[in-house]
């Protein structure tokens, strides 16, 4: 499919997730069939202030393309100027605007899903970014702020009218965070107003069957997978294959999960160094090993390791143990 002038190999995308969708994980997901990968959210103010950590988050690898860089902020002028600055980043294909993050530290600054309470401001932000960027602009929103403020169709229309090339909708309100069930009906309602641009559905997709149901029921053009990809980057190829041929690929073996985890560890350490790489890999290993025999004891052991060789040996021992499973 196409978003603006950017083509993707399929319509199964990796959702942006803070602290998770860094370069290493994006590459892992792309290698496993993701059609488009989104970055962690990046502060527009951080770019403006030349923050070193923020600058590092803007670096992408050719292997992950096409890649969407997600910006967050509430000042239209700053958002526009920083989008213009990213025009020089040739390896970034799409600019995404975060209007869905529910985290209190983001909300208190009027950013993320707090913007759902200010539709006029949303229009100004999308217009500013769209006018400044030479890349397609997408917007990620939620169902609304809470059950008394459900306005995703209105916000989606405003985004479209102000230059967005696609809109992604998470079927939960900010008040829900990630509890309850994603509302497919609201995504279906958004489909009715997005007549000229793609709609991306997001929420509760953990199986190929759920992915197909969302596409069929809501009429969305693509799906976006977040928590369903944690420890399970293989979900992209399984969904893509099911959507294309109807074939349901077998569940990923424990050996393949652990082999991928080992590769993921090496990539993280090469990118961020041993100390940070091991620290960040612990949560991923918790997801990769979920459901394995004695996984709780294994995670306890993993969380006590600070040395790369020791952690690598532990994973290799597990691969050997589960060699035929």
Description:
With about 325 residues, the chain is of the alpha/beta class. The protein has 2 domains: about 240 residues, Aldolase class I (TIM Barrel, Alpha-Beta Barrel); about 70 residues, Putative flavin oxidoreducatase, domain 2 (Non-ribosomal Peptide Synthetase Peptidyl Carrier Protein, Chain A), CATH 1.10.1200. The chain has an 8-stranded parallel β-barrel with strand order 3-4-5-6-7-8-9-10, surrounded by 6 helices. It has a two-stranded antiparallel ribbon with strand order 1-2. β8, α8 and β9 form a beta-alpha-beta unit. The radius of gyration is 20 Å and the shape is globular. The relative contact order is 0.11. The model has no long low-confidence stretch (mean pLDDT about 95).
């Amino acid at each position: 499919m196409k978003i603006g002038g950017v083509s993707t190999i399929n319509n199964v995308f990796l959702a942006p997730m803070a602290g998770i969708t860094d370069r290493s994980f994006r590459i892992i997901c792309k290698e496993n069939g993701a059609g488009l990968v989104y970055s962690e959210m990046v502060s527009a103010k951080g770019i403006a202030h030349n923050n070193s950590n923020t600058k590092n988050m803007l670096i992408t690898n050719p292997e992950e393309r096409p890649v969407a860089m997600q910006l967050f902020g509430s000042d239209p002028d700053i958002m526009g100027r920083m989008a213009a600055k990213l025009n020089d980043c040739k390896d970034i294909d799409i600019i995404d605007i975060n209007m869905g993050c529910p985290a209190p530290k983001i909300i208190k600054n009027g950013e993320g899903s707090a913007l759902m309470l200010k539709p006029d401001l949303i229009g100004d932000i999308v217009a500013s970014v769209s006018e400044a960027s030479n890349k397609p602009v997408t917007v990620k929103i939620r169902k609304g702020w809470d059950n008394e403020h459900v306005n995703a169709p209105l916000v989606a229309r405003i985004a479209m009218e102000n230059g967005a090339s696609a809109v992604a909708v998470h079927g939960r309100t900010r008040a829900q965070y990630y509890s309850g069930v994603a509302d497919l009906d609201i995504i279906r309602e958004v489909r009715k107003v997005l007549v000229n641009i793609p709609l991306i559905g997001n929420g509760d997709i953990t199986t190929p069957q759920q992915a197909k149901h969302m596409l069929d029921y809501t009429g969305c053009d693509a799906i976006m997978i977040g928590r369903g990809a944690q420890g399970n980057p293989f979900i992209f190829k399984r969904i893509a294959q099911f959507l294309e041929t109807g074939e349901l690929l077998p569940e990923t073996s424990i050996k393949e999960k652990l082999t991928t985890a080992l590769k993921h560890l090496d990539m993280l350490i090469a990118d961020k160094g041993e100390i940070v790489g091991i620290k960040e890999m612990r949560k991923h290993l918790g997801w990769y090993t979920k459901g394995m025999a004695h996984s709780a004891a294994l995670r306890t052991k993993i969380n006590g390791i600070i040395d790369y060789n020791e952690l690598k040996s532990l994973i290799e021992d597990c691969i050997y143990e589960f060699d035929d499973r």
